[in-house]
Amino acid sequence: MRPNSSIDHQPYQICREGKVKMVTNALPPNGGSGTFSYSKNSYFQKLSSSVEERKIEEEIQKKLDVQKLACGSNKIIRVADLGCATGPNTFTNAKKVLEAIKHKYQNQCPNTETTLEFHVLFNDLPSNDFNTLFTSLPHDRNYFTSGVPGSFYNRLFPQSSIHFAYSTYALHFLSKSPEVVQEMNSPAWNKGRIHYTSASKEVVDAYAAQFAKDAAKFLDARALELVPGGMLVIVMPGVPNGMSYSDIVNGLLFDSMGSILMDLSKEGLFDESQVDSFNFPFYAPSPEEMTKVIEMNGEFNIERMELTNPAPWLKSMNQVIPEWIIHVRAVMEAIFTRQFGNEVTHEMFQRLTKELSEKSELVETKHRDKIQILVVLKRKE
Amino acid sequence: MRPNSSIDHQPYQICREGKVKMVTNALPPNGGSGTFSYSKNSYFQKLSSSVEERKIEEEIQKKLDVQKLACGSNKIIRVADLGCATGPNTFTNAKKVLEAIKHKYQNQCPNTETTLEFHVLFNDLPSNDFNTLFTSLPHDRNYFTSGVPGSFYNRLFPQSSIHFAYSTYALHFLSKSPEVVQEMNSPAWNKGRIHYTSASKEVVDAYAAQFAKDAAKFLDARALELVPGGMLVIVMPGVPNGMSYSDIVNGLLFDSMGSILMDLSKEGLFDESQVDSFNFPFYAPSPEEMTKVIEMNGEFNIERMELTNPAPWLKSMNQVIPEWIIHVRAVMEAIFTRQFGNEVTHEMFQRLTKELSEKSELVETKHRDKIQILVVLKRKE
Ligand SMILES: Nc1ncnc2c1ncn2[C@@H]1O[C@H](CSCC[C@H](N)C(=O)O)[C@@H](O)[C@H]1O
Ligand SMILES: Nc1ncnc2c1ncn2[C@@H]1O[C@H](CSCC[C@H](N)C(=O)O)[C@@H](O)[C@H]1O
């Protein structure tokens, strides 16, 4: 595969009519380190990913043959983080993974003098704020660093060059929202909503199909990049098999954002058609769907897959509604801003905090236990 | 060697007295794409480097055993640019180098079906504007990309992982100015000047010693990172053996900047001691000095070393004085600004253009023929 063929992430698509039509697409989270920045508002993701830490360590310990990998690569272990944002979570993740790999190596070769050299490759979209990432690299790190700009739905690394890849809270960003949900004449037209939550079966199916397509591209690329025996770990939002997204606490978020935007359009701030043509490229798959796409790809063995409560420490959502919304804002703001502008987006998030705080009883009824999926794969040898 | 030991570029040094003393140090050129940005003002560097293009292609063709390198690395060729800035020159350089390597491979293996995969690693200081670099990557590139933040005076890449490294117009940036030239009680105190041009022998020697030390660190790191048989190419400002920097056109630049800053301090804008304590970390070595440091290192064969006219197309400097100063400004502004602030720095560059335009006859008398050095090294096998 030639890397140039599809190396870039296209934010726009040309419609058949020749007009440029915006297909909402993943834009990076807020850069820098200000009030609404990702670097300041990502500790929920950190806490949630950390729920999986021990399990990932266990899988490395049991199933990653570090000695063999190191032998085949001049003692250099290459680790990739797919969708790293600006930090700091990515640094914690790298540290934990490297510790586990080192630990396994010491178990395998207790008497060796050679130490491994680690190269960590931080991937995100080209428009991610890599400057913030690079200037906040931990000073005491013991690995070589690279930033790799590009979409993880395409090839990012040379063939068979990565030993361990992980992606936390990134793969729910579709490469774009499905086109049919934006087409007025399609049965899947998603009028008056910005997501598949509470939408028609056609809309849900279109999103599911987009996820299947994107995840397939993701796995195709990783299958080429990972060495045989290499490991791929994914942590992302998920749903129990058969559960609808409107039953899940995050579904409430999308429903509320959609209805607030409809209100704002009725207040005359913009035309309703702006909502009709906007669909947030976010998808949370079930284990069944995940399994299917992995089996279709055929190059990986599933070592572990499970749903977990991402916030077992959280007694009640009501404690954290404003914080939760700031976290959502740090990640999603850019995508809303491109469609609705700064002012509308700001107002939407303000109202969202208020509305969800008022609806706190409804929030409490929603499912929020098993909504994080962990997938551990091994590249077949 | 452990990468963590000296991975970061320290802009400050603690003095023996415990006070933080600024040691002027390489800061990246102006980011973004505005009037004074490097990306808009670096075509002189491009023209100058391109004078060496054919020679580099020749060396690759004659001396780089691409077939052997590719065999030992699963057909992945890793190329590093050390001190890449924000582009666009680095992209042109990468393209030319990759074409030459591909060409050599086709000559060596005319009947092979396998194509090489290229990974280009773009290195610069962590504070370089990598965002501009990443968002301006050529769309039709046929290589995988990484940005590698860190000082090239330290380790940047895993052991034996790079096949070809080059550095154009970057290695004249010392890691810092020599400390003794800033010490009032030292015989090498460089009072009233900002560079070794026209300075005492002690100052010149201190700069030369700093260059020798830095270049040694540079070569030590590259010796570990390059595979045996790998190639290292350096293009940078140089001087003929034995020639003093005040005879060279760039020397006039430093002399004028120094005297303008002294004027500005006399006008009361800042204290003269600010000039005394500032020394620009720029050094242009002679072939003799280069040879010495390479032989001291001992891990490289010198394949080619020569001085060239960097601007054979340029009839007279007077044609280009304002452009020249903007180019200088794009690269050096940040370092002056840290010492003197925005206003003084702006005023200095304004006066510099005026002064050198007025002194155009003097400019013409200065040596500007063989002031670019090309060094082609091969890592011993
Ligand atoms: N197609 C794509 N390719 C690469 N990165 C992507 C992407 N789509 C989304 N992302 C990135 O995925 C990140 C999700 S935020 C999660 C960041 C980090 N892994 C953490 O756990 O905290 C964002 O930085 C976003 O820019
Ligand atoms: N110690 C160091 N490590 C890495 N890069 C350095 C450095 N000292 C200076 N540089 C970088 O070297 C670059 C010099 S400008 C030259 C850029 C490019 N090679 C070209 O030919 O156009 C700057 O971007 C500067 O930040």
TrEMBL record, chains A, B:
Keywords: Magnesium, Metal-binding, Methyltransferase, Transferase. SUPFAM superfamilies: S-adenosyl-L-methionine-dependent methyltransferases. It comes from the Eukaryota. One of its GO terms (molecular function) is methyltransferase activity. GO terms for biological process: methylation. InterPro entries: MeTrfase_7, MeTrfase_capping, SAM-dependent_MTases_sf. The keyword Nucleotidyltransferase does not apply. This is Uncharacterized protein. It comes from Psophocarpus tetragonolobus.
